[in-house]
Each structure stands twice: as structure tokens, then as C-alpha cells.
Design a protein that fits this description.
The protein is of the alpha/beta class and 178 residues long. 11% of the residues lie in helices and 22% in strands. It binds 2-acetamido-2-deoxy-beta-D-glucopyranose (NAG) (2 copies). InterPro entries: Leu-rich_rpt (IPR001611), LRR_dom_sf (IPR032675), LRR_N_plant-typ (IPR013210).
Amino acid sequence: MAPTAAGNLAMPSSAAAILLLWWKGLSDPNGALANWDPDLVNPCTWFRVTCNGDNRVIRLDLQEMSLSGHLSADLARLDQLQFMEITSNNIEGSIPPEFGNLENLISLDLCNNTISGPIPPSLGKLKSLKFMRIDHNLLTGPIPNELVGLSNLTILFANNPRLRYPGMGAVDEDDTGC
Ligand SMILES: *[C@@H]1O[C@H](CO)[C@@H](O)[C@H](O)[C@H]1NC(C)=O
Ligand SMILES: *[C@@H]1O[C@H](CO)[C@@H](O)[C@H](O)[C@H]1NC(C)=O
């Protein structure tokens, strides 16, 4: 019988490995991220990736790159990430509940994709989060009370036809585009 180590084999161990594995699961028809070089020790010189002085990833700026595919729960292991900007792509599927572990996240901008499913209540753990833009998607259900309770957080949620907003005033929020 073959040894089984499936769980660990699938688990990328560095920021570069996490990002590469995610990118391999995406469609990138323009080769926008083709310079994501697996031979580098860290991803700090990769296009649209920014690190801090300790070579830890703090920003992903992946706006308008025609990327399609899903968000990966593994991205939640980039634990210094402050800005996740994935505006105006064709990302589908749901927001991984694991994103509630991105404790340094300041901005989560997913505007103008086709992301569906509920907003994970776990995002209410993100005490650093100031800006969450989820407008122009296909999210469903209520905005969780856990998020409504974060007084420093601005949520832009227009143009999600199936999203409900209990406890929030602006039901027909102005659509400002992305
Ligand atoms: C959504 O993204 C598409 C493709 O990048 C773009 O053409 C369109 O203008 C964007 N819509 C908004 C509201 O930003
Ligand atoms: C909001 O931000 C202020 C200033 O950074 C901080 O003192 C306060 O604790 C924050 N409130 C919450 C609920 O996180």
C-alpha cells in the first residue's frame, strides 16, 4: 500500500508557493502574472506583489487582469497581508471563511467579479479592516452582524442583486463603479 501524506503534500509552505499554486489554478489569458518566477526565494519582486522590510507580502494589486477562477483559502496564510485588491476580474465562487484569519488586512477589494455565496461571518474577526468593497458581484444572504458591528469598517456593497442588508441604512446605495 502506498504511503498517504495527502494533506501535507498539498500544503504550500512559503508565500511564493502559496501564490504560485493559486495562480496555477487561475486562468490568466493575457499572461499578466507570467513573471511570477518560481525560482526566486520570495515573491517580493513579482509583478503587483509588495512586501514589507522583512520580505513578507503586504499587498496584492491584481486589478483588471482578466483573471478567472476562485479565491484560495491558502491566501489566508499570507498573514501580513494588508491590501487584497482583486478588482474587475472574473473571479467566481465564494469568499473563503479562512480570510477571517488575515488579521492585518486593511482593505479587501473584490469589486466587479462574479463572486457568489454568503459573506463569511468570520470576516468580523478582522479588527484592522477599514475598507471592504464587494459591489458588482453575486453575493447572497445578509451582511453578517459580525461585520455590521465593526465601527471602523466601510462596506461598499451595491449591485449584488441577492444580498440583504439588515441593520444597514443604505439599501439602494449609490453605484460609484469600481
Ligand atoms: C468591470 O470589469 C470590466 C472588465 O475589466 C470592465 O470593462 C468594466 O468597466 C468594469 N465595471 C465596473 C463597474 O467597474
Ligand atoms: C477604530 O480605530 C481606532 C483608531 O485606530 C481604534 O482606537 C479603535 O479601537 C477602533 N475600533 C474598533 C472597534 O476596532
